[in-house]
Amino acid sequence: MALRNIVTEGDPILRKKCREVDEVTDRIRMILDDMVDTMHDADGVGLAAPQVGIMRRMFVAEPEPEQIYYFVNPKILSQEGEEEGDEGCLSVPEMIGTVVRPTKITIEGLDRDGHSRVYTFEGFAARVMCHEYDHLDGILYPDKALKMYHVEDQPEQEETEEA
Ligand code: ZN
Predict the structure, then answer these.
(1) pLDDT per position as a tens digit, 83-121
(2) From CA 63, how far away is CA 43, in angstroms rounded?
(3) For the domain bounded by 12-162, which CATH number is listed?
(4) How far is the CA of 69 from the centre of ligand 1 (A)?
């Protein structure tokens, strides 16, 4: 297990478009495993490679406890609906923003073993996947947020997850 440093907003790495992964090698698997450890350590529900300084198109996500998804070279095949919701980002500490995301997406990508997978996600899980996918194109959620709050000023009492 190895934890990696999470880069934060202001670092130009977060604003670059990531390149595709050529092949899911042992080295890629090691990075993905480190990303899961880093996500757990930071109490997040998702982490994209550029957030740990790696400019490759891959992310990990755990929208529900112990349901870990690995996406390498993901593509969003379809999306439908719109809903507003609050989200946070491990790279934008202490902030929360309200963002419109699709209610449902279908996404394809390679898993940790390099096998092609297609999943359909709804609601919160769809939000997490869209948030992570945006990281691969250098997009941070504040770019899309309708409004932003400091965590201490969030109107609702419930805790917002970070990804
Ligand atoms: Zn994020």
Answers:
(1) 999 999 999 999 999 999 999 999 999 999 999 999 999
(2) 12
(3) 3.90.45.10
(4) 16
**What ranges do the domains of the chain cover?**
12-162
Expressed in angstroms and rounded, the spacing between residue 22 Cα and the centre of ligand 1 is 24
**Catalytic positions, please?**
132
CB 116 within 8 A of CB 148: no
Residue 118 Cα to ligand 1 midpoint, Å, equals 22
Look at strands 116-122 and 104-110 and give their pairing: antiparallel
